Sequence to fold (305 residues):
Amino acid sequence: MTIKAAVIQIGSVPFDTEATIRKIEIHVKKAAENKAQLAVLPEALISGYPKGVDFGARVGGRSPEGRDEFARYYESAIEVPSAHTDWLSEICAEHQIFMVVGVIERDGGTLYCTSLTFSPEDGLLGKHRKLMPTAMERLIWGFGDGSTLPVFDTEIGKIGSVICWENYMPMLRMAMYQKGIQLYCAPTADDSDGWVASMRHIAREGRCYVLSSCQYMTRGDFPDDHHPIQGEAPDTIIMRGGSMIVNPLGEIIAGPIYDGEDIVYADLDLREIIRGKYDFDVVGHYARPDVFLLKVDEGKKQPVS
Fold:
């Protein structure tokens, strides 16, 4: 089976949830008009990845201004499920497209970096919360647990998400391979040259299609009172993109793109996955369970029982 996939490289409307969803709808509609059956969008698209901001944090202290910054960020996050996820479901239904999108999820007093997967028929299929926020991200985001590590078996293939530097966690990748992931979605905020090599390696290792989407944003996209370390000139690039699609042999078949907001497309022949596994199946004939075993705890962890 061959499907057409779209990786959408756009930026948030920072701190404005509704405006960001309207922007998503415009680009998902365009992808659907170009016959895409799957659209993959960046990490933390709703309602922003605050790259270059420190939220007033120092070792041993937090500033009042930083607390205000966090409150604004919290207020623009979404609950899952909610009216916002219903809206995203309606977009997928109207345009008959599957969608993977990065959001900031609000749950109680904690924010999570989350990837949501939607079906045109069934709406919100589920979520994956980032297991390990990277560096300063740990100040503003909580840690996911093993209860949100889904791979969804859909009519267009098995879809799963691994967010940004989670992709450097070998055991997490192995868990996803064991679930039979075919459409490996990697929403990210990493726009470095090295990210391209990582995506090629993962596609080759997992013998799957890798679809990586990153935001493109400049300083001018943010409010005037937002002060990233990269600089204050409106044309200062905060995130340069780098979205791409890689086939199961690690060959780039679309992108990467760095020069603005855009959509990259590719036709994905799922038979290529089996052709690739002919000589390398990391959870099959190339595994050595007599030597190596991975135990995955998918239980939900509650602080009070």
